[in-house]
Amino acid sequence: MLKELWNDAAGGFHPVSAPDFLPEKQLREVQLRRLKAVVTRAYERVPLFRHRLEERGLTPESIQSLADIARLPFTVKADLRDTYPFGLFASPMTDVVRLHASSGTTGKPIVVAYTREDVDVWAEVMTRTLAACGLHRGDIVQNAFGYGLFTGGLGAHYGAETLGATVIPISGGNTDRQIMVLRDFGVTAICATPSYFMHLAEKALEMGVDLKDMPLRVGVFGAEPWSDAMRARIEADTGIQAFDIYGLSEIIGPGVASECAQHDGLHVFEDHFYPEIIDPETGEPLPDGTEGELVLTTLSKKAMPMIRYRTRDITAILPERCGCGRTIRRIRRIGRRSDDMFIIRGVNVYPSQVEAALLNVEGTLPHYQIILTREHGLDQMSVEVEVTPEVFSDKVRALEEVRSRLAHAIEHILGIRVGLRLVGPHAIPRSEGKAKRVIDRRNDS
Amino acid sequence: MKLPQLSVFLENRPGSLAEPLKLLAAADINLVSISLADTEQFGILRLVLKEWERAKAVLEQDGWVANVSDVVAVDVDDQPGGLVHMLSVLAEAGINIEYMYAFALRRNYKAVLLFRFEDPDAAIEVLKAANISIVQEADMY
User: Fold this and answer.
1) Where are the domains positioned within chain A?
2) A21 secondary structure, DSSP code
3) What is the pLDDT of residues A9-23, one digit of tens each?
4) How far apart are CA B111 and CA A399, in angstroms?
5) Can you list the positions of beta strands (E) in chain B?
6) What is the 8-class DSSP label of residue A147?
7) Residues with pLDDT less than 70, chain A
8) Which CATH class is domain A342-440?
9) How far apart, in whole angstroms, are the C-alpha atoms of residue A40 and residue B119?
10) Quick check: A425 contacting B, CB < 8 Å?
11) If 0-12 CB within 10 Å is exposed, 13-18 middle and 19+ buried, where does residue A240 land?
């Protein structure tokens, strides 16, 4: 079988990765052809989309160049909720082979659908993702992304299998068992949320398992924003190479974009997902290199095409060619989401700003939680930070100093007063999926 | 003679002092002295004990943050002015005291003061030169 030839660790790349290296002219041609097709499909089959085009006096023929995409209306998360459950499907249920749903934090979840072809595309982009992270046949992949309605588990699973690696479908949670499997099965790569992996590494050390002594080589991390400082810490503590991957259920799940060995931005698999950056306030397109909100269009999705979907993720398209040789463009690592933001006393705050401040104060692991309360009508923000052996001292003065250094670092970045509380190790609940960084109790009373 | 002292981070909430002590009791570890420094938010439990290495391992295994620092045990003359004399010896030598606490030595019911100095070695030199007796580790446990 062909598989024997390509995906060994010889340094060659998986043929499925070929589109990563398409000459730019050819890539744009593919994109335009697919864009026209997907807009036609959505226009003919999705009433909401057809209605919006008609309102603007547009037809699929209005798309004559890639730049014409800016004439199309946006799709937002609320559209998925308003048409719950199947209102945006462009395929009859007889062609739909899979449904996933996102954890709706408010009210109803959103439902996404895949045809057989969509599942194949998904497997392809996840294969390209894992190949970009340096995985190959022979790798033993512990897939700690959750299996189920969440797209992470099955997305990574199909990609790893298509690559020819050995998949352990362990799903999230049960950390003790994860550590046992990781050690006993000679796991070489792990897929997880970065916060869960940090928790796992910590727990492993407590159990006397040093990940540095294990064959574990690569971590494929996604589903939540994480910083470069967190990456440095993970790599130093566990001796692995940590890769950032990006995706969202509305578009396909994981497999929208991935880092390569350069660790300098994430390559968007733009032959399938067309990226734009817009001004989140005005909706105007912004040039490459400028920071704004990422908007994605699925160029080849059948069951549920998404046209100009507003991701709420803040990033920039990096126009320079990557050192790895891939021609598909990169986006900067996503540090914040426009809807992660909360407003306190009129100040916009992103959890990533708090994280940056905590990391600036030497030796503090980023296990923290932001708690918002309202006292006498005034919003209060306090940050709970777990004490680590590195900062702990037997002297009250030294510990108070750590506390005030942390508080000042946050106040310096945000420009507002915050309460800071040192709490015991493991006092902050660990999540097995996305880390819950902000507890908003302002409307509790 | 410096003595190892184990310090443990505690949150300021009901029950937080008992939890680490229960762990040590379950591991059959005996304490020689105990002191608690507390603030509005947190507390620092300080322990002197013979099996401090094992105690540290037991606590860390259970997820507690603990560290070890050096303290100096001084046997102060049991008469008026005994402590004052000692403190003035230290003050004249410019030795900083971070904190101190007292406890009774089980063996002969003698009062012993435990000092955490900024620079324990310098403090020991000064105390020795002034003929103030320092309790040896062997006499503590």
Assistant:
1) 3-24+99-337, 342-440
2) G
3) 445 567 888 899 999
4) 29
5) 2-11, 33-38, 42-48, 66-75, 97-105, 110-117
6) P
7) 1-13, 103-107, 339, 362-366, 431-435, 444-445
8) alpha beta
9) 79
10) yes
11) buried
pLDDT of residue A295: 98
With contacts defined as CB-CB under 8 Å, which chain A residues touch B20? none
Pairing of strands A140-143, A189-192: parallel
Q: Please give the pLDDT value at position B29.
A: 95
Size of interface A-B (CB pairs under 8 A): 55
List the beta bridge partners of residue A219: A190, A242
Q: How many residues does chain B have?
A: 141
**A3-24+99-337 has which CATH code?**
3.40.50.12780
The model's pLDDT over B60-87, given as tens digits with 9 standing for 90+, comes to 999 899 999 999 998 877 778 878 888 9
The pLDDT assigned to A418 comes to 93
More confident residue, B130 or A64: A64
CATH number of the domain located at residue range(s) B2-69 in this protein: 3.30.2130.10
pLDDT at A353: 81
pLDDT of B1 above 80: no
The DSSP call for residue A149 is: S
ipTM of predicted assembly, 2 dp: 0.86
- Please, where in chain B does CATH 3.30.2130.10 lie? 2-69, 70-140
Contact across the interface for B41 and A403, Cβ inside 8 Å = yes
Q: Which two tokens stand for residue B63?
A: 């997820």
User: Homologous superfamily of B70-140 in CATH?
Assistant: VC0802-like (3.30.2130.10)
Contact list, B16 vs chain A (CB under 8 Å): 424
Residue contact A395–B98, C-beta within 8 A: yes
Could you give the CA distance from residue A246 to residue A156 in angstroms, rounded to a whole number?
A: 12
Judge residue A33's burial from the number of C-beta atoms within 10 Å of its C-beta, 0-12 exposed, 13-18 middle, 19 or more buried.
exposed
Least Cα distance to A354 among A415, A311, A313 occurs for A415
Task: Write out the two tokens for A42.
Answer: 């959505």
Taking an 8 Å cut-off on Cβ atoms, the answer to whether A394 and B65 are in contact is: no
Tokens at A387, concatenated: 């004490």
pLDDT single digits (tens) A381-411: 999 999 888 889 999 999 999 999 999 999 9
